[in-house]
Amino acid sequence: MKKSIATKGLLVLLCVCISTFLLAQTNQLLLEKTVQVKQKQGTLLDFVKYLNQSQGIPLFYDESMIPDKIVKLGQKNWELKALLNKLFQNTSIEYRYISGQIILRKKKKTKVNFSGTIKVDGEQLAGATVYVPELGIGSTTDANGYYSLILPPGKYTSVFSFIGHERENRTLQLKDDTSMDINLSPSIDKLGEVVVSAPQKKQADLLEATQTGAHQVDLQQVKRMPILGGDTDVLKSIQTLPGIQNATPGVVNFSVRGGTYDQNLVLLDGIPVYNTSHSLGFFSSINPDAVDKVTIYKGDIPAKYGRRLSSITTMQTSNDLVKKFNLSGDISLLSSRLSVNTPLGKKVALRIAGRISTSAIANLFYTPTQDFTQPSRNQIHNAEMAYTDLIASVLVKPSDKDQVKFTTMLSQDQFEGFNVVANRTFNWKSTGMAINWRRKFKPGLVGNFNLHYSNFQKGYLTENALSYKTNGVFVRRVYGITYNWQAAMEQIGAQMDFTYQLSPKSSLNFGAMATKHRFHPGKTFGSQGINDITLLDRHSVETALYLMHQLQLSPKLEINYGTRISGFYNIGGIRYIYNDTQRLSQHYKPGELMDSFFGLEPRFNLRYKLNPNTSLKISYNRNYQYLHQLNNSSVQLPTNIWLPVSNNVKPRFVDQFSLGYFIKLGKQGKWDFSVEAYARFMHQVIDYRDNANLFLNDNLANEVRTGTGQAFGMELMLRKKGKRLNGVLSYTLSRVIFNIPGINQGEPYAPRYDRPHNVSLNLSYELGRRWRIASTFTYMSGAYTTLPRGWFTVNNRLYNYFTERNSFRLPYFMQWDIGITLKSKQKRRWQGEWTFGVTNVLNRSNALAIFRDQRSYHPSSNNLTNMYLAGWLPYITYTFKF
Amino acid sequence: MKNLSNTYSKTIIGLFYIILFSGCFTQEELDVEFDTNPPIVIHAVITDQAGPYYVHISRAVGEVTVNPVNFLPSANYIPITDATVTLSDDQGNSDVLVPYDQEFPSTVPQSETRTFAQYGFYRTSTNIQGAAGRAYTLTVQHEGKTYEAKATMPSTPPAITLNHEKFIYPLLSFNQPVLEENYYMFLYRDFFGDDPSNGLNIQNQFEDNLWPLFFPIFQVYTDQFWTEQVKDLDIYAPNYEQGQPIVFCVDCPENIQIQMHSISREAYEFYDALNQQTRNDGGTFNPEPAPPPTNFTNGALGLFRASSVRSITAPVRY
After folding, report:
1. What domains does chain A contain, in order, with CATH numbers?
2. In terms of CB atoms within 10 Å, which of A81, A827, B5, B46 comes out highest?
């Protein structure tokens, strides 16, 4: 019996083998079988069904998987194999022959898109990180909290993280495009601190980025820093960054890596902000509550921005849809701020942030009159200064793919100075509008479209009036020249920008922009002593095309290269031509092309990771600038007007080379240290001749001299980010030299802001849960200045004579400011903070300028006057959030 | 009570303005190198009025040393009395100037009487006469160095009409040519009658051609912003001395003499630069200080100008 079973078994096995073989034979035959199709055209599914049902081909498939596609066939008789190849050509379907059956299935992908959003409490987080350790690839979320990575299929762990929040680890089996939304929760050890404002923004990861010379300003830290009058100021805090200098401390003008003040551009959601200051430059016109993200690019300006030689500061209003209404504000000695964040439905949010100067409020009740009229020189007595500004943004997110933001800004100023501004009453106003539309067209392709408008109007009344008391009544006599002056510059333009990720290691950034400028260089009206004059408007168009390619050549080496091609066209107007003896003018009709200029601006950045914690970067940049500012004082006067390049004043350009070394120190990279060195070669640099006449002069050719400049420097920065101690220590070593024939007797000279040594230390420390102490310390070498060499007599009056330009260095600048903050108890809806501080603790008379007072006809002393902003000054600020 | 709180608020706001928005000022002795080898300063005017014409030559000083008096603070410059000065024109006329030996007006509070020559003044010795359109050359030789300046006299300024209606001092109206660039300089002086005991009448004692080298207040204008008709121009200076306005009419002048000089562009730039200097604040709000322009060669400071003059004397109406 046993034997028979064994025999049977063997027989069965044999049969199976044979049949399998035979079946295999039939399989092969099946594919080579000739099938007839009855129709030449139909959907893919029709053909599959026909083959399966009418021809009896054993097909296994999922109907939903078959793409809806029309197929046309050229012939009726097919070999099955050829037919299947033809049918599924260019589809996501492939066929396999297994055990006598044909199985239709999806092709295995070689790369999949892994995307989603990272949120906290339902609000999207910008700047959060997703990281795939197996591949060493990571990405950060964009402004909408959206991330996207292109990965080969496989099994991965992915890590989602954001500063101050618990990490989320997820294990993924990636086969197909996958979307994953992650909700992060705040770290347990951070529970003590209530995050009250918009989420703290992550610093740009300096180690990973190929970009050099970029700083993302830590606005939280900016708000903690003590500052004159307790008035938080983004542009002043930028000056504590390495490589940024200023001739006159305390004003918002700054020089980046040796460039002049007019080589910097501030963009607020794409609106060019030409008027960045209030009160002649002592306060910046950007309300820190209105913006969530501020980044400054020093010299190495990304191709999509361009337009300036030295720096671009981009400021962004909120990109997060707030979920509930909140109100915040502060009151300081100088100004009061209020901002409102509110959702308008589920997809729209509104933020309005406004500010008004305390003096503007005071002026509502009281106008300073003659009481403070002291005819003493150089003091802004009888000063009536007031400012207000407002920034509003509406954020709309109609779908996951789109984000539209409407931004408007308005800033207004009034300033009346007695003598220091030559008896002038200034008023200036800037308005701006922008629409930014951001759209994800498909995974990996994001487009940004921007429309912007900006208008900067300024004017002053100059009136020489003499007030004297006769019989107890003030008599005011107006003498000499009186006039109103007005000027404006207007700009309207558009930009489109695309980022296209070709592969996990390669992406493109490209786009185009065009902007039209209208310069109104000035007019006078209501004049006495001169006749009213109007300078002709000037019209120009500025265009640019750019393409950058970011490529990861190896996990260590990444490059970013490309170019920007800029163009500038003067349209209509008068063109001046100088020959040896005279000035000729050619008139062009409105709309007629007068001059055109082009610039090729190549850029190259390289990042090499020496090890996971250190990287080395090299970059080269060439930038062009087509606008000049007429300014030969060191503060930001509203009389400084902008003019375009012309046949007489050529575009400026600069070549910048920089080298950077970045290292993360300590556990979890809480410390980072960077060294950057740069060399800049500036071409067609302009400066004003001695005793230049800029008043109502729209033709610079006679007043400027052109030459070259060189700047060299090294910037060191050590930064600590922690729970309690946050701080930045920076040191800059720099030199700038201009070589301009016709200025300083043709000898090289340094601009005023050239300060070789700059040290800045910003610290804030959380003392328990309710107290915080913050300190700012700044040391700078003195600025350069021109001092008199002696006296000479003309018409029975002593005058000074000067020789070399900027040959004297002012005493060094050193200032220490401290502030202490008391926060209200947590868990309350109303969160308040009192800050008490002292600026200039050391009570140093840091010189803004040193000059010889020349009011007197016959001075009896050689003493020089040191003008400084203030001695030690206390301040108090109350900040609230609700 | 209301008054009190108003005063209080004014004080607070006033202090607030002063502390926060004014620069603070200190006088400082800095370690500044004064010029140890100061340049020569030459100031000379030739006009189309009858001669003689005057030249003032001095040497600048590195630092002021004494508290000077109102007129001619000679200790704050070094008069140069031994220079060879030659004035020539494009017609071949030449004049070697001689020291001006006239005694300086006695009302000047100086302990000793001095002549103009001792203060560095020279005058022409021939009857050379300036005329519009001519070119002049001034050559100064001193200590082996030669300093030279050339000037062409612009055309005669237009006729002036006066308007006494607004102020005690008359306002000026004139028609000026628009086709060319014109620059003008205005000077004025009060006449106080004939009483020599009146200290203010020292102004009367300078000759018309000498006075433009003395009077520290002058206004220069460009016609860049003028049309042909200039109406009611107010040329009177703010009269600030050390920040204090001179009180009007303590000693009431009876007449005013107004001189209108046509000047060249370089002369305009020179005087304009001097006027700008009085506002000097080290380049904070105002332009950076710069060496004043000059038309002399060889590193001399100063100016040689040729001006056509229109002079007018009018009563001051109260």
Report:
1. 2-106 (3.55.50.30), 112-190 (2.60.40.1120), 214-881 (2.40.170.20)
2. B46
